[in-house]
Amino acid sequence: MSDPAVDPEEVRHVADLARVDLGDDEIERFTDQFGEILAAFEALDDVPETEREADLSNVMRPDEVRESLSQEEALRNASDTEEGQFKGPKVS
Amino acid sequence: MTAYNGYVTEEEIEGAADGPLAGRTVAVKDNISTEGVRTTCGSAMLDDYVPPYDATVVERLKAAGATIPGKTNMDEFGMGTTTETSAYGPVENPVAEGRVPGGSSGGSAAVVAAGDADMALGTDTGGSIRCPAAFCGVVGIKPTYGLVSRYGLVAYANSLEQVGPIAPSVEEAAELLEVIAGPDERDATTQEAPEADESYADAADGDVDGLSIGVPTELLDGADESVVETFWAALDDLEARGASYHEVDLPSVEHAVEAYYVIAMSEASSNLARFDGVRYGKSGGYDGNWNESFANAREEGFGEEVKRRVLLGTYALSAGYHDKYYKKAQDARAWVKRDFDEALSDADVLASPTMPVPPMKRGESLDDPLTMYLADANTTPVNLANLPAISVPAGETDDGLPVGLQLVGPAFGEREIIRAGSALA
Questions:
Q1: Chain A, 30-89: which have a CB under 8 Å from a chain B CB?
Q2: Residue B55 belongs to domain with CATH number
Q3: In CATH, what number is assigned to the domain containing residue A23?
């Protein structure tokens, strides 16, 4: 079994990928917990490759204009809007 | 305000004057959208989020004449087994002092157990209806995947979750299921259930004569002794009324809880990417670049358990780890499905304790996430297999703590589990 130990750098890296800032105390706790949780996930190594029998079918509908939320309703929960649009941070 | 913190928002929503649920109150979990009434998902991120539309299940409740007394407290975004991760404070178990109510639909089960609502809607991704029903001594049904619309449910892990009823008795839970079940063109994963000549509530006739029950030994192995004793006593009760049971092997379920967490966390990492503080939630500010702004909004808005799952899901899907975790978990899911299908070809229903442990003491799970995850060992396989399951009160431990019995049926076999469960509650 490979060693699943996690170091703080990995936690920082994955937090960066997930766009979540973490405090130093959270990084410390997550480093220990992730090591333990990922070690438990190692049990999945024993799972045999299994064919997936999907008994599903696609659901289609005609591409027609239908009633939807008004612009005002769609914008109502935004923390800031400008000229009828969502206002976000700078795309640099 | 309830003494046990069951609601996040108490605001009455009136239904139609007539209908099958007229005169009855149905509380709604706070991750189900209610037009004009705030819907927080138990998260600070959505503290002032007011949906502009109703979930399909809410539309159906209103059309059926139900009154919604409020939105129930829950683990943040459904992530928890104890209803202690809510940004609006933990819920206490109204029938077991000092214990958790189970989660994540802890508020929904608690308001029903305390008699503050006649019934409630919960959501079940890996046991979140059945666990709190078991811990609070009430009935909860996790429907077959696709029986109930998820339109307007704020997604956590959409390949696993279903909305379902919580009620004091099996018959009442079945009545509520009748109202919310059925295809919805706004949720393409819904399906028409095969036609039947009786309603769900009519199936609650308590007739178990000739019923064949399979007992997966793997789901008893690690369980607490007091839970196992209560479980067998309930099975003896069913046997005395004409049911028979035999042991079955489900080797795949040994890996189910790990597979569940990999899949649920992976889906969560994608689903929760929408919470960036732009369309809803608190803005992360306008200084710096957008990545910094989003990371800031998410640090502020998410609690620790949500961050943990989003990060672990991101990790499981990242380059180099996808095949090791996510692909293996999908293999396990297919294996679990096959195992259940086989076991159910030789039994009408499968029975196990809903939870392997009695309700935990308050506060003891928060620092030990892995132990909390492993408590979902008996409920998560059912979500992986897309099957229906019910939790009914089976009795109490010697210490007076509620124990739930879980009955699992074949796909769209809700009537089987309702009939069997109604012999006990």
A1: 30, 33-34, 36-38, 40-41, 43-53, 59, 61, 69, 73-74, 76-80, 86-89
A2: 3.90.1300.10
A3: 1.10.20
> Does residue B212 form part of some domain?
no
Q: Give me the residues paired with residue B119 across strands.
A: B26
Per residue in B384-405, pLDDT (tens digit) is 999 999 999 999 999 999 999 9
Q: Of B333, B368, B398, which residue constitutes the final position of a domain? A: B333
- Comparing CB atoms, the residue among B292, B314, B337 nearest residue A18 is B314
Rounded Cα distance between B425 and B303, Å, is 37
Number of independent structural domains in chain B: 2
pTM of the predicted structure, to 2 decimals: 0.97
Domain holding A33, by residue range, is: 8-46
- List the single best residue of A29, A61, A69, A79 to mutate versus B (max B Cβ within 10 A): A79
Looking at the domain assignment, is residue B349 inside a domain? no
Q: What is the ipTM of this complex?
A: 0.94
Query: In the predicted model, what is the mean pLDDT of residues B302-326?
Result: 95
Structural domain contains residue B328: yes
The answer to whether residue B142 is domain-embedded is yes
Of B91, B96, B34, which Cα lies nearest the Cα of B60? B34
